[in-house]
Structures are given as C-alpha cells and as structure tokens.
C-alpha cells in the first residue's frame, strides 16, 4: 500500500518514502525470522517478494480460508435446520393429540348425538391408525413419529399444511374404504402387469408395472372400456399400494418406503387417452394420500411421447415428487437400474441375474465384475479343480453388442478343447453348464468392437456329479 501511494503521489518527499521503506523492511525481517526454514522464501530483490511468490501465498491460503468460512456456518445451519424440524414434529404431535382427544380430527363432532354415542366415537378415534401405525402420540408407538414426519416432509415442514394433509388422507381413506380393499377381488386380468421383485441396494421393495400388454386391444377395452371399469382399475392400483405397505417397516432403522419401476416397452401410444388420464390420476392420488412412501419412480423404456406427457402432467405434482422421477431410454435400461439394484436382485429381463424359482443360484451368490474396454478382447477363466464336477455359470453384459464364446480347456495338453458356444450380439443373460471329466477351466471370451467400455457381471458354482452311465454299469 505504501509503494502504491508513493507512485500515485510523486510530489511527496523522498525522505518520507525512505522512512516507510525502512520500517517495512524491519517488519518483514522480524516476520521472516519467526518462520521455520521451510516457510522462509528467498527474495529476488532485497526484501521485496516477487509477484509469483504472492500468487503462491494466495493459492495456499485460499482453500484453508474457504473451508473455515464454509464449514462452520454449514454445521450451524444443519443444527438450526434440525432444531426447526424437531420443533415442527413436536408441534404436529401436539395438534394430532389435541385433535384426537378433542374428537375433531375427522371434522367437527356432531352435537346432536347422545353422550353415550359421543363417548363411543371418542374412544374409537383414540384407536385410529394409519398404515397399521397408531396416530395418538401419547400411545408411545415408535412408528407414530415416522408417519408424521412423512407428512411434514411432503409439506416442507409446514405444520399446519401437514396437519391438514393428514386429515384429508384420513377422510379419503374412510370414504374410499381402504381398510376393506385388501379383501376385494379386483383386476384378475391384471395380475401379471404389476409384480413385486426383490429389493434395491438400500432394502426398498421393488414394484414393477408393465404397460406392454395394454397394446392388446381386447385387454385394453376390458380394462378401460367404461367409467366403472376405469374406476375399478384405479381402485386396483390403490389395492396394490396397500399390499406394498405391508412389506414396509415403520420403526427405527426399518425400510418405510418403496421403489416403483414403470416399464413402457411396447406400451400403447399417446392416443390411449384413458390410460394417460388414469396414470395422471394415480400419480396425484399417491402424492396426496401416500406421502413419502415412494422413494423413487424409475421409468424405463420411455418413448419420446411419454416425456412430453410427463412435462404436462408434472404441473400437478409437487417439486419434491418431481425429483423422485428417473427416466431411462431403451439403450440405458440395465445401466440405470444397476445404479439402484444389485445384479443378483435385478430380473433377467432387465439385464440382471435374478430368475424366479432359480434352482442353481440365490441372491446371496454374489456376482463378480469385469470391465472390457472399447475395441479390446477380454477372457474370463473359471477353473475346474478336478474331474467329475459339473460347472454352472451365468453372465450378462451391460449393453451387450459384443461377440461371445465359451470353451472348455483341459489342463492335459494331450486333450482337446471343447467349444461350447459361439455367438454374436447377444442381448440377454446367458446361463450354461458343463460336466468335466478332467481338470481344466472354462474360458469365456468377450470381444468388444464398439467404441464404449462394457461391464460384465458373472458368477459360477460347481457341484459333484455322478454320470448316469455309472448307475447303468453298476446295475
């Protein structure tokens, strides 16, 4: 600063400049002497540091200052945010408690009824529950706070809005008779369109909805041909949601939400207005009456028209609900799903390794991973320790579009190699087995001549096998 002032004011006396430079020099020497030898920096011209040294100091000190400036407020903000959330939960608990005890949770009590009937209604209201969890906070059920927090999160912890949302949900459930819906026979033709399959990496149940069969005109007409049938379809969707809730656990450390995966492969086009309308109604219904029970909405094999429809429909959805959607075009289905689901728990039709009623492998049989770089060949070797073993293996390639070959290579150089399979551009999980009467190895060769790296998922097991001819010979 002293040098800049002197340059800007050349009329000042030289003795003033010399005095200030002398004081600055003495201060620099004192500061430099306090530093360790590593911290001391050589100067190129007397006691003045170069521009490069000054820039070096800025780069070193900058991140440290930034971290100090950012870390402390973020911790304080987090603590403050938690305090606000805890305060909101406590306030909602009090409102729910007062509304239940005061007999006005579902609306104003009828003053024209007898005292005995009023007492009965009060007692009945004290036993009210949602998704199998008592709502009266004073009962001390560990799931009560979990349920109340779902309504608070859906309304950004605005207590009054969360309370009103809870009241509307309870009224809707009473009018819609959701407590009886599990006993009803609905949509027998639709049983294969929606199914549960395993869990994701965090333990959330996976619900798959397949829209492809609706391309069949007869099924579409039977499902959406009249207003009554459309209402029955909507009720069927609610029934399936209630079945999914039975798989959840409303307790500390439990999994209290699910993942919905919607498969639009071969689905009817945008002209199927009944299906589009019901899809929109279903989304709104779930958002308003099942808050925070859907952890993620993954839409796979999504055609272009669906994106357009979703943009229009999203005006009815909250910002929080919009963020739960993940879309995957046909070429990225497996890659997208594997971000959320382990390959051992992802169905084979979606590029995973899971088969229903699998006699060979279980979800506990973990898969190994191998990367095949672009324009390269990779070999996977599965050893056969001894003769008399049957080796079973399965393999899938994310994205496929590769050449694939399997062969058995014996350890004995005098024996012959056996080619088991040689295919190109496979598109689904491969499973094979081989009985080896001598030690060797199964060699799987994958040729990736595309410009993208490929990920290979595979697993194997061996089992001792006695050939059939031995039984015949012994007889």
UniProtKB/TrEMBL annotation:
Family statement: Belongs to the patellin family.
Which keywords are on file for this protein?
Cell cycle, Cell division, Cytoplasm, Lipid-binding, Membrane, Transport
Any one GO BP annotation for this protein: cell division
Keyword match Transport: yes
Q: What InterPro entries does the record point to?
A: CRAL-TRIO_dom, CRAL-TRIO_dom_sf, CRAL/TRIO_N_dom, CRAL/TRIO_N_dom_sf, GOLD_dom, GOLD_dom_sf, PATL, PATL1-6_C_GOLD
Asked whether the UniProt record includes Cell division among its keywords, one would answer yes
Annotated region (Disordered) at 1-57
The family database entries (Pfam families) matched by this protein are listed as: CRAL_TRIO, CRAL_TRIO_N, GOLD_PATL1_C
Q: Which domain of life is it from?
A: Eukaryota
Q: Cite the SMART domains for this sequence.
A: CRAL_TRIO_N (SM01100), SEC14 (SM00516)
Where the record annotates domain GOLD, the positions are 365-470
Spell out the protein name for this chain: Sec14p-like phosphatidylinositol transfer family protein
